Amino acid sequence: MQPVSLHSLSELERVSLQELALYQLQEKLLVGDLSLAKVGPKGSKSIRQKLESFSKEKKDYSPQTFGIPLFQVIANDRAYKQLQETVKSSRRLCLEVEATVTNFRAQMQKRSQLGRSCWMVPCEMFPEEPLSPAFPDHSSSWSQRRGAMSVDSIADLSDNSSKLLEALQLSHPHELDPRRSLGKKKMLSLNPITWQVPRIVDRCCKHIETYGLQTVGIFRVGSSKKRVQQLREEFDHGLDVFLDEHQSVHDVAALLKEFLRDMSDSLIPRELYAAFLSTASMEVPAQLAVLQLLLFVLPPCHSDTLHRLLRFLSKVAQHAKSSWGPDGQEIPGNKMTVSNLATVFGPNILQKEKPGEKDSGAKDFEDSTAIILVVQRLIEHYQTLFMVSPEMQHDILRRLFQTDPDVIDYLLRRKFNTVLSTESEDLTEEHAPTPLSGQALESNSVSSEFYSNISFLNLDVDI
């Protein structure tokens, strides 16, 4: 097996990875039972119970973007997208009806003119035509249309598809007991899940990547509070905000920072704040290993959004220094190094578990230093941190063999086919002719790896 991206894993594999990462973190004593402080009179509330609310999307569309949980922002974006698609579909239907009526009128007018000039011709010479327009038929089922939903899952997709979020939430080990969910078979897809990044985050990042990478002091130079407030209100009212060259890069940068700062749940959940900060005192290899486990534990919407943000910040840092263009002209750098970006974004990404309680100034300074160091590591190594090692993939398959043995064959075949397609693309790119015997030999080596994985798991698979 080769290292694979976290986002290439199927939903089922990703759930298993979360559970494995949580167990390993608890073995390292970096996280406890991950329980929240008392919430009301009901006592403690586990992090799973808190994060399970991510799947309880509101049925009524609310366009709000700022100051609400991240899962709700994504749910609002999804509802907005569905609303837009409904409007487009309605407009398309109106245009089709209008075209049908216009065509019918033209035919009737032509027939009327022809009838006046040839009134002596028998009626049998004219083909029968309908006396009313034939409107397009939209009664066909959605399953017969192109683009209909198709999901490979363990159970049939008969329940609300919003359980996709619930299935991937952080789990407590004692809550993973299958006896707790008798009669409630969760739908866990064998396909990767859709990226869950808020519209505002993606558009702000794309705008700055397009227009602001050479802007000196990006994220540090002041912005227009009035224009930022206007953009904020437009997103909060559900408007389709397009950020183009007319918007100031500094305004968009301030808008992105405000969104992250005002989230009711921190981008990195506050329950993991202490665990992330504890890595600041570790040696780099050990620090990266623990940070990777912590990233695997994150709920998907937080993980995907953090990945998008870190990729963006890494790209900004690559343009920190000045460079020279092909014509010998100097291209100024933005002077935002990884350290500077970590200083600006650290407090917005990592927030304390109890922001209302202030510690001593020395403790705050200590935390601030650790936050900058941790976020700096995340930016520098984000590509490696979001990769799943072959060893961890084997652990995932072992775990699934105990819980869902019927899907192991499918997952192994998919990995095998992915390896073959990747190697085929590499050979095509190299444009180097390879003898047939060599191709067969290479294919046999991959097949042997496939069989070794099966024997390693003690599986009986019919090939």
TrEMBL record:
Position of the signal peptide: none
DNA-binding is among the record's keywords: no
**Matches recorded under SMART domains:** RhoGAP
Rho-GAP domain spans which residues?
188-386
Pfam assignment, any one? RhoGAP
PROSITE patterns the UniProt entry points to: RHOGAP
Query: Which GO MF terms does the UniProt record name?
Result: GTPase activator activity
- Keywords attached to this entry: GTPase activation
Q: Tell me the Gene Ontology biological-process terms attached to this UniProt entry.
A: positive regulation of intracellular signal transduction; signal transduction
| InterPro entries for this protein | Rho_GTPase_activation_prot, RHOGAP6/36, RhoGAP_dom
What are the record's GO terms for cellular component?
cytoskeleton
What name does the UniProt record give this protein?
Rho GTPase-activating protein 36
Provenance organism? Aythya fuligula
